[in-house]
């Protein structure tokens, strides 16, 4: 039987609330790319490592979370890896410390009145496209799609609609013609007959078709100075997150949903559970970053982001496997 030993487990198990190290963690939404973090919260894994975590959900996409991190109003962000690349192009050191989703869970869905046909990319012109928020990875998805097919960006309208039920409602109410979003929204809209997934990036083949490679998305990232000043806190956060990733690999979708705090669950549990099952391919099994895969977000960003295209990006500074490697102390009984 294999199990993972968290750093100083025996000592930390005796930690009292008064001794717990405080850490602020913010997230942009409850989309399923962030599920491993939500599982770690639901199983009290952060508390068990001796942390007192304050969680803030901005519910408006990853760009707000990134702003909070850079401003110092949060310590660690649950956001997308490509934000670390953006920050390096602006001479800001933001480092991903554990990978949650090894692939994009994004899908592009169309409503009943949508005339977009993926086989004819030019039919996207004139569409009102819902994204989680400006500057988010759903925003990047659309811009990269347009770029690859030589379609002017101003030929579509991008509208921030958030994620989950609010995003589905925007499509259902006709506020947008197309929706780029994640599970659970992707599963909800098909289950409820609101729309149909037209481009699916949840699996490896879909991601390669969209981006040309595997695209690591949701991660925990923080500022380089926070890592330097708080290495023990960072290690505890990573330890708990890695344990959650391993737990997900060995439990059913139903068990995963049962472990989540109620406010993390969108819609009815039955549909949400199917969404978790549909999203399974995207979760990292171990939290490690692959040096080949991280090149895909860089290529995507360089295609339309002038600052990134003009910067000398050192990808080795945008992530670290050091804390994940320490978390993976495997023993055989």
Automatic annotation (TrEMBL):
It comes from the Bacteria. Its main location: periplasm. It holds the Pfam family NMT1_2. Residues 1-20 form the signal peptide. GO terms for cellular component: periplasmic space. One of its GO terms (biological process) is alkanesulfonate transmembrane transport. Keywords: Signal. It is found in: Periplasm. Belongs to the bacterial solute-binding protein SsuA/TauA family. This is Transporter substrate-binding domain-containing protein. The lineage of its organism: Bacteria, Pseudomonadati, Pseudomonadota, Alphaproteobacteria, Rhodobacterales.
């Amino acid at each position: 039987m294999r199990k993972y030993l968290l750093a100083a487990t025996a000592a930390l198990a005796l930690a009292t609330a008064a001794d717990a190290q405080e850490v602020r963690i913010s997230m942009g939404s409850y989309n399923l790319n962030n599920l491993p973090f939500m599982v770690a919260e639901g199983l009290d894994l952060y508390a068990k490592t001796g942390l007192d975590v304050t969680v803030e959900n901005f519910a408006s996409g990853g760009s707000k979370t990134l702003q909070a991190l850079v401003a110092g109003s949060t310590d660690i962000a649950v956001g997308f890896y490509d934000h670390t690349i953006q920050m390096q192009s602006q001479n800001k050191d933001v480092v991903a410390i554990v990978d949650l989703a090894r692939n994009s869970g994004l899908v592009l869905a169309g409503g009943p009145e949508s005339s977009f046909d993926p086989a004819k990319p030019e039919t996207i012109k004139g569409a009102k496209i819902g994204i989680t928020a400006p500057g988010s990875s759903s925003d990047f998805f659309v811009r990269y799609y347009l770029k690859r097919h030589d379609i002017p960006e101003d030929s579509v309208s991008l509208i921030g609609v958030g994620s989950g039920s609010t995003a589905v409602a925007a499509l259902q109410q006709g506020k947008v013609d197309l929706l780029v979003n994640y599970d659970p929204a992707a599963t909800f809209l098909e289950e409820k007959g609101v729309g149909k997934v037209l481009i699916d990036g949840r699996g490896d083949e879909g991601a390669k078709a969209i981006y040309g490679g595997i695209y690591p998305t949701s991660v925990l990232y923080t500022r380089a100075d926070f890592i330097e000043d708080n290495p023990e806190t960072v290690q505890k956060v990573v330890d708990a997150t890695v344990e959650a990733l391993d737990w997900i690999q060995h439990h059913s979708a139903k068990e995963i949903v049962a472990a989540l705090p109620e406010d993390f669950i969108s819609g009815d549990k039955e549909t949400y559970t199917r969404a978790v099952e549909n999203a399974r391919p995207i979760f990292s099994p171990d939290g490690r970053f692959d040096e080949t895969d991280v090149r895909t977000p860089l290529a995507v960003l360089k295609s339309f982001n002038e600052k990134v295209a003009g910067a000398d990006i050192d990808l080795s500074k945008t992530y670290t496997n050091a804390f994940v490697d320490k978390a993976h102390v495997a023993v055989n009984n």
